[in-house]
Design a protein that fits this description.
- The complex is a heterodimer of chains A (124) and B (239).
- Chain A has 124 residues and is mostly helical.
- Chain A has 5 helices and no strands.
- In chain A, helix 1 crosses helix 2 and helix 1 packs across helix 3.
- The longest helix of chain A has 41 residues.
- Chain A is flat, with a radius of gyration of 21 Å.
- The termini of chain A are far apart.
- Chain B contains 13 helices and no strands.
- Chain B starts with a helix and ends with a helix.
- Chain B has 239 residues and is an all-alpha fold.
- In chain B, helix 2 packs across helix 4 and helix 10 crosses helix 11.
- At the A-B interface, helix 1, helix 2, helix 3, helix 4 and helix 5 of A face helix 2, helix 3, helix 4, helix 5 and helix 6 of B.
């Protein structure tokens, strides 16, 4: 767990530094994820420490959202009188984004698989 | 109970009490999720938040006091987000195969995430501040707050919007896709990360590491694309 935390926090801090240096609007953790991904690609493998520690950490990813989420619920007084219109906007927006994205990705993946299969048949 | 309350009032033990309460609430809600055989409404994050809101209200505790203990859990959110690179790397062959479908979906999903809620709010005649704040609904909280403050929205309101849509997306996502027959891990994960960012990712990770990996990828890329697109789209609308 020690090596895992050292690597993950190290990459997050590297991400924070990169974000500040390039004035990127993305949080350090997200940049750190991309940096770690690039590192794993270069290294062509996952270090043993991460293989052991990461599944344990990600198993309870939901837990880490609770303190921030709680703060936000206490903020929800900000919604004011027109709260239900806002909820409608949020619900519709989330549904549309989710369903259209999933449908599009599904179709595109079916198409690209069919094309690969056709290409393979041609070669054969 | 009275002793516990006395303990909670003692500043020396206070942070530990709220750390414990958060872990306990989460554990309890996991059990409820298992007992209801993963019923979509039994979302552990949503339930645990509501439970803790009740506890804070009953004990008359303010959020700052709670966060003295809660922040130890909050701090792990960053390293855990970084860790999403590991399951993503394990899915490298699938990522390579689906590269173009994923990139195209990212483009469409990002634009939809920006305009969908904003469009509905505008049509319903909501305040301009609210309409502008909704532009950043589909990205994770820190990015959303940053965008909102730049484009004339309200950062705190942005955080509320992000969490509400995240819990909603996490709850309805899988049942909808099961019905539509688009249940593959990549499809579900990527769409959940696009539409419901971190909370969608957390739910996808419970489903499978692959779904979680693609949700994390979608969340990261969408944050980047949205932060770039929002100012450009606003300029187009203004012109």
């Amino acid at each position: 767990m020690l090596e895992t935390l050292l690597m993950l926090i190290g990459f997050q801090l590297a991400g924070e530094a990169l974000g500040v240096a390039l004035a990127l609007p993305v949080p350090g953790a997200v940049l750190g994820m991309m940096l770690l991904f690039a590192f794993l690609m270069l290294r062509r493998g996952v270090p043993r420490a991460l293989q052991q520690g990461v599944p344990a950490l990600l198993q309870h990813f939901s837990l880490f959202f609770i303190p921030a989420g709680l703060g936000v619920v206490l903020y929800s007084k900000l919604l004011g009188e027109s709260w239900w219109q806002m909820v409608v906007a949020l619900v519709v927006g989330t549904l549309v984004t989710f369903i259209v994205s999933a449908g599009l990705l599904h179709r595109l993946m079916v198409l690209s698989r069919a094309r690969r299969r056709a290409a393979r048949r041609e070669v054969a | 109970m009275a002793t516990l309350l006395a303990l909670a009032r003692d500043t020396k033990t206070q942070p530990l009490i709220w750390l414990f309460a958060t872990l306990l609430a989460y554990r309890l809600c996991l059990t409820i999720q298992q007992k209801t055989k993963g019923h979509p409404l039994a979302n552990p994050v949503g339930m645990a938040i509501l439970l803790l809101v009740g506890v804070l209200w009953l004990t008359g505790t303010d959020y700052r006091t709670y966060f003295e203990g809660g922040r130890f859990i909050h701090l792990l959110l960053g390293p855990a987000t970084v860790a999403l690179a590991v399951p993503l790397y394990a899915n490298l062959p699938r990522l390579r195969q689906a590269f173009w479908p994923i990139m195209l979906t990212l483009g469409v999903g990002s634009v939809l995430g920006i305009v969908s809620s904003t469009g509905v709010a505008w049509w319903l005649g909501l305040d301009e501040v609210v309409v502008r704040t909704l532009l950043s609904r589909s990205v994770s909280t820190p990015i959303a707050m940053g965008i909102a403050s730049k484009v004339g929205g309200a950062p705190e309101l942005a955080a509320v919007f992000v969490i509400v849509s995240g819990v909603f997306g996490a709850v309805v996502g899988l049942p909808i896709l099961s019905r539509l027959g688009w249940r593959r891990d990549i499809t579900y994960g990527f769409a959940a990360g696009l539409a419901a960012h971190g909370l969608g990712t957390a739910r996808a990770l419970q489903h499978s590491p692959t779904a979680g990996a693609f949700a994390g990828l979608a969340m990261g890329l969408n944050g980047l694309v949205t932060a770039i697109l929002v100012p450009i789209l606003l300029r187009l609308v203004a012109a």
